[in-house]
From TrEMBL:
SUPFAM superfamilies: Kazal-type serine protease inhibitors (SSF100895)
Residue ranges crossing the lipid bilayer per the database entry: 100-120
Source lineage: Eukaryota, Viridiplantae, Streptophyta, Embryophyta, Tracheophyta
Record-given protein name: Uncharacterized protein LOC120266415
Signal peptide bounds: 1-25
The Kazal-like domain, residue ranges: 32-88
CDD domains in UniProt: KAZAL_FS
InterPro entries referenced in this protein's UniProt entry, alphabetically: Kazal_dom (IPR002350), Kazal_dom_sf (IPR036058)
PANTHER family named in the record: SERINE PROTEASE INHIBITOR, KAZAL-TYPE FAMILY PROTEIN
Keywords assigned by UniProt, alphabetized: Membrane, Signal, Transmembrane, Transmembrane helix
Length: 121
């Protein structure tokens, strides 16, 4: 008595259907565009300079924090890497990032102010 093997044809058809479905879903995902954390801003929709009433910082592709958000970065012609301020040292503009220079300046003003206040200078 011969043992009949189950037909592999239904399994083969099912595998081909699943592969074609996954290929079409991946092609649909690749056609959608992702603009990063900021929606696409049309050139006429925003006016420069930006009037900022609330800080909404984003980190630009140039390593500079734009405090007025996506419209501020778009006004500067820079793409946005992520929301929130840039991390220290992410600027490629110079040896010391702008935020570090600002921090040094503010610290110096505090030291100078306390020196005058307590008569050290």
């Amino acid at each position: 008595m011969a043992i009949s093997k189950p037909s592999l044809l239904p399994l083969l058809i099912l595998t081909i259907c699943l592969l074609s479905f996954s290929a079409t879903s991946q092609s649909l995902d690749s056609t959608s565009t992702y603009d990063g954390p900021c929606p696409a801003l049309s050139a006429g929709a925003s006016s420069c300079p930006i009037r900022c009433f609330r800080a909404d910082p984003v980190c630009g592709a140039d390593g500079v924090t734009y405090w007025c958000g996506c419209p501020d970065a778009a006004c500067a012609g820079v793409g946005v890497v992520h929301t929130g301020p840039c991390k220290a040292g992410s600027s490629s503009a110079g040896l010391v990032p702008r935020e570090a220079l600002l921090l040094i300046h503010i610290t110096w003003l505090f030291v100078l102010g306390f020196s005058f206040l307590f008569g050290l200078l």
